[in-house]
Amino acid sequence: KNEVEQSPQNLTAQEGEFITINCSYSVGISALHWLQQHPGGGIVSLFMLSSGKKKHGRLIATINIQEKHSSLHITASHPRDSAVYICAVAYSGGGADGLTFGKGTHLIIQP
Amino acid sequence: NAGVTQTPKFQVLKTGQSMTLQCAQDMNHEYMSWYRQDPGMGLRLIHYSVGAGITDQGEVPNGYNVSRSTTEDFPLRLLSAAPSQTSVYFCAIRYRGDNEQFFGPGTRLTVL
């Protein structure tokens, strides 16, 4: 079974700290997604990338296709960044639909 | 979550009862999917559809039925609910040829 592994599972940090969440996967992909889910909330897409790097505000996502690894960075973290961050991949040559998800990283930013 | 609606938001069932979770979209996206989210397991694909009249099974299809009679709607049916189906259910859509997915707000289902 194709796996998506995220680390860490839980992360608590102080406001202002630089945050890194990692994601690794096992086989070739057509795209990788970073998603955000606040407690009791819906799922919001932060980034979709297949190569390189994307930036949106204080969030940066990178992907290394050769190493099958992606990172999500949060600069100048804020308590409102507290959420579960989920990595998901669409595998190359896979079915017509369906993502494979990591189990998520539960991030808490303390003031 | 714009363009994807799910009803109801919350539901409590007794074992053996049946119900339908509704998912509707107004973005004219061909692909629609149902996922369930359980603690410690991440989201898992239940069923998906690539267009009206076409459906297929995902990773965890047992106990669920789907149909896709229109582009807009993709209902998920539980014929005889079991406690193992207690979960949060998300509907997602995407446009053919584009990997970006849009998620509905979710339905929290409890089966007693």
Q: Which descriptors would you attach to this protein?
A:
heterodimer, A: 111 residues, mainly beta, 6-stranded mixed sheet, 5-stranded antiparallel sheet, 11 strands, 0% helix, B: 112 residues, 7-stranded mixed sheet, 4-stranded antiparallel sheet, 53% strand
How does this structure look, described?
The complex is a heterodimer of chains A (111) and B (112). By secondary structure, chain A is mainly β. Chain A has strands spanning 4-7, 10-14, 19-25, 29-37, 43-49, 52-56, 59-64, 69-74, 83-91, 100-101, 105-110. In chain A, the strands form 2 sheets. In chain A, strands 2, 4, 5, 9, 10 and 11 form a 6-stranded mixed sheet that branches. A 5-stranded antiparallel sheet of chain A has the order 1-3-8-7-6, with no helix packed on it. The model of chain A has no long low-confidence stretch (mean pLDDT 91). Chain B is mainly β. Chain B is built from no helices and 11 strands. Chains A and B meet through strand 4, strand 5 and strand 9 of A and strand 4, strand 5 and strand 10 of B.
Provide a compact summary of the structure.
Chain A is mainly β.
SSE layout and pairings?
The complex is a heterodimer of chains A (111) and B (112).
Chain A: E1 4-7, E2 10-14, E3 19-25, E4 29-37, E5 43-49, E6 52-56, E7 59-64, E8 69-74, E9 83-91, E10 100-101, E11 105-110
Parallel strand pairs in A: 2-11
Antiparallel strand pairs in A: 1-3, 3-8, 4-5, 4-9, 6-7, 7-8, 9-10, 9-11
Chain B: E1 4-7, E2 10-13, E3 19-25, E4 31-38, E5 42-51, E6 54-57, E7 64-66, E8 76-78, E9 87-94, E10 101-103, E11 107-111
Parallel strand pairs in B: 2-11
Antiparallel strand pairs in B: 1-3, 3-8, 4-5, 4-9, 5-6, 7-8, 9-10, 9-11
Helix % of chain A is: under 10%
Biggest chain contact: A-B, 24 and 26 residues
- Summarize the main sheet of chain A: 6 strands, mixed
In terms of structural class, how would the helical and strand content of chain A be classed? mainly beta
Number of strands of chain A: 11
Number of helices of chain A: 0
Element-level helix/strand string of chain A: EEEEEEEEEEE
Low-confidence stretches of chain A: none
Major sheet characteristics of chain B = 7 strands, mixed
Helical coverage of chain B, percent range: under 10%
Radius of gyration of chain A: 14 Å
N-to-C SSE string of chain B, H for helix and E for strand: EEEEEEEEEEE
| Multimeric status of the protein | heterodimer
